[in-house]
Specification:
It contains 15 helices and 20 strands. It has helices at about 15-25, 40-45, 60-70, 75-85, 85-95, 135-145, 220-225, 255-260, 285-300, 315-320, 320-330, 385-405, 430-445, 455-475, 480-500; strands at about 5-10, 30-35, 50, 105, 110-115, 115, 125, 150-155, 155-165, 175-180, 185-200, 230, 235-245, 265, 305-310, 340-350, 350-355, 365-370, 375, 525. The radius of gyration is 22 Å and the shape is globular.
Length: about 525
């Protein structure tokens, strides 16, 4: 078995993980593991931008209040203030790294950064790089990482499980590394490290329709749970209101920035419907917009609704949304003249592994940053473009805390050898494919935009059976990428269902027919693994 030794192991290569890696690289050896190419994560596909207080007419308090409102009473106010107060510094750091944000000419004839507005925001505070901000951030950070001699990246490695030390006399465990499957050799390798950061992204692939790339399979949440970390608020999965409805497009997202710049949601007959659901109309928070679209589709028996920005004119559209315009043209749709067919799709996991302001989990030496973590910033509903900001701020906070504890003695605990006695099975892939589809269908039908006690009970019953089947396969046959992802997704699905069953109210992204009202006191849904 191959063994690797580093000071810090970072599992995941999105904005959060790479931010931490770059801040840590001057202090020691850092390893970055990625299931696919370093850029193949949710960061790369983020279109809209990054929320930050950059304009003189804006304020930290305004951004904080907008976030608290969107979070439906469940945000951690300390975490919100911490994130927003560090927003300008995070953007300035990105600019130093070379991210080219969009500019415009102001009234004095000078160039300044162009700020747009998105749902839930009371001000224009979204800094962006046209409509491909994530791509600009991801490629810039990957380029910076590849220049650092102290950062070693491992593409094509899927983390299997975290490695923890035996409980000490004080009763606590420490994370000392991870097992990872080399997807080229199909062998499991050991990565030992003094500190480990989970930056694996979310779990939206648990749903049938999602805007996320294939790697968003809940790996970090599942590994952290198995290692002994508590999780919180996993019932809050954000459905992006507008994913392109086209059989050839798979999961192409239509940015919320279109609605921020004046696009209208319409029925098939061309009439608007959002003003009937919320006074903020198309600029209402995503949960409200997604439920409105879902209701319109079900009420009228339609497969999609329409998003129309054609009234803004060809030049405006091509300048502001070149990526979306080009992709739609490839599919035979000219958005300068036609409305875009859209449907909601699972987009963002608001809950996750519980962490503090330093990104520390319940397990010593283990940190979680980005979408895999539950910081308290998002509450019951993530406000648009706060997610990349969270990645930057908490990626830095994790690095800072690790630097402050750099002199922590290295544990010499012996790492258990990986059991490689399991056999291959020719029927394995068929069963995995069937179970994967069944799991995602169950979650979409019963744990989706609108829920009920009966739907959740049905989902729990089916997931229990899937857990048993997958456990038997994992125990007996050699692991591969599909089996590892399915094992993680079914565990995260189980945690999502249990979290949803705990919440006897409708709040933010969790809407249930049996409990349509808010409870007077907002509480996190916390699950803790049994020893």
């Amino acid at each position: 078995m191959s063994n690797h030794q580093h000071d810090v192991l970072i599992i995941g290569s999105g904005a959060a993980g790479l931010t931490a890696a770059l801040h840590l690289s001057q202090y020691g050896k850092v390893a970055v593991l990625s299931k696919a190419a370093l850029t193949e994560g949710s960061t790369f596909y983020a279109q809209g931008g990054i929320a930050a207080v950059l304009d003189n007419d804006d304020s930290v308090e305004s951004h904080v209040q907008d976030t608290l409102v969107a979070g439906a009473g469940l945000c951690d106010e300390e975490a919100v203030h911490f994130t927003v107060e560090n927003s300008r510094k995070a953007i300035e750091w990105l600019i130093e790294q070379g991210v080219a944000f969009s500019t415009r000419e102001n009234s004095a004839g000078e160039q300044e950064y162009h700020l747009t507005r998105e749902g839930g925001h009371s001000r224009r505070r979204i800094i962006h790089s046209a409509d491909a901000t994530g791509k600009a951030v991801a490629t810039t950070l990957v380029g910076a990482v590849k220049k650092q001699q102290n950062i070693q990246w491992y593409e094509g490695y899927n983390a299997v499980d975290l490695i923890t030390s035996s409980p000490s006399s004080s009763g606590g465990k420490r994370c000392i590394g991870a097992y990872a499957l080399n997807l080229t050799s199909n062998e499991v390798e050991v990565f030992r490290a003094r500190f480990v950061i989970l930056a694996t992204g979310g779990a939206s692939k648990v749903y049938l329709y999602t805007s996320n790339p294939d790697v968003a399979s809940g790996d970090g949440v599942a590994m952290a749970w198995r290692a002994g970390c508590s999780v919180a608020n996993l019932e809050f999965n954000q459905f992006h209101p507008t994913c392109l409805f086209d059989p050839l497009a798979r999961s192409f997202l239509i940015s919320e920035a279109l609605r921020g710049e004046g696009a209208f949601l319409k029925r098939a007959d061309g009439t608007r419907f959002m003003p009937e659901y919320d006074e903020r109309a198309e600029l209402a928070p995503r949960d409200i917009v997604a439920r409105a679209i879902d209701h319109e589709m079900k009420k009228r028996g339609q497969e999609h609704v329409l998003l129309d920005i054609s009234h803004k004119g060809k030049t405006f559209i091509q300048q502001h949304f070149p990526t979306i315009h080009q992709r739609c043209l490839e599919l035979g749709l000219d958005i300068t003249e036609q409305a875009i067919p859209v449907v909601p799709a699972a987009h963002y996991t608001c809950g996750g592994v519980r962490v503090d302001l330093n990104s520390k989990t319940d397990v010593d030496g283990l940190y979680a940053v980005g979408e895999v973590a539950c910081t308290g910033l998002h509450g019951a509903n993530r406000m648009a473009s706060n997610s990349l900001l969270e990645c930057l701020v908490y990626g830095y906070s994790a690095a800072k805390d690790i630097i402050n504890h750099w002199d922590t003695p290295t544990l010499t605990t012996e790492v258990p050898q990986w059991d490689d006695s399991r056999v291959s099975n020719s029927d394995e892939q068929i069963v995995i494919t069937h179970n994967w589809h069944e799991l995602r269908q169950v979650m979409w039908n019963y744990v989706g935009i609108v829920r009920s006690d009966k739907r959740l009970q049905r989902a729990q019953s089916r997931v229990n059976l899937l857990k048993q089947e997958i456990h038997e396969y994992y125990a007996n046959f050699k692991v591969d990428n599909d089996l590892l992802e399915l094992r993680n997704l079914v565990l995260v699905a189980d945690l999502m269902i249990k979290s949803a069953q705990m919440r006897k109210e409708s709040r933010g992204l969790h809407y249930t027919l049996d409990y349509p009202e808010l409870l007077p006191e907002a509480k996190d849904s916390v699950l803790t693994p049994q020893p």
